[in-house]
Amino acid sequence: MGSPLDAVTWPVRTARLSLRRTTPDDLEATWEYRGLAEVGRWLTSASSTVDEYRATFEDPERLAMLLVVELDGAVIGDLMVKVGDAWAQAEVKEQARGVQAELGWVIHPDHTGHGYATEAVRELLRLCFDELHLRRVTADCFADNEASWRLMERVGMRREVHTLKESLHRSGRWLDGLGYALLADEWRGRT
Ligand SMILES: CC(C)(COP(=O)(O)OP(=O)(O)OC[C@H]1O[C@@H](n2cnc3c(N)ncnc32)[C@H](O)[C@@H]1OP(=O)(O)O)[C@@H](O)C(=O)NCCC(=O)NCCS
User: Which one of 47, 61, 76, 121 has the minimum C-beta count within 10 Å?
Assistant: First the structure.
């Protein structure tokens, strides 16, 4: 089955980076940073061995919504674009199919602090609105993941929800969550 990301011509270049679809061959390069405890800390799933990671990574549905971020030809991070339906009342459900996307991001800690995530996500927003013609993008994180929500604010996403002790972290603690969004109209008004 096709992926919404098939609509874009890859790779897509920014001033310093290149974004492309992920392939099974990116397993090792992405494991280099996804295997680090400091990276896995806030991610939905953190594998402790490369074999465990392979099982998640090679899932075709997940691969289809994953992009890698390259700097000078080396993979330094990845982005998720999960296109899905908006909530809608039954009679208008069809019109709400595939109109929005949940975004996600990881940058190798050796490459954080240089604005690469900002650069990649700004381009991702352009792709979502200009090329995939989505009407809304969203992203969620633990409130304690300051690097992630500061990134959302840098790229102009708007904080919509702050949930209290609603999300269970693998440490066993119930943590606050933050939800951000951006509408195509808001994005167009700014660019
Ligand atoms: C979230 C994450 C991608 C943010 O990475 P990041 O490096 O902080 O973000 P950027 O690449 O945009 O860089 C911003 C930093 O670079 C600095 N910077 C340098 N040059 C810059 C430029 N040209 N543009 C923007 N920022 C620049 C900024 O001042 C900022 O530094 P600061 O945090 O000290 O203020 C990264 O921390 C990460 O991968 N975390 C682990 C995985 C994770 O939590 N993912 C999200 C799960 S919800």
Answer: 61
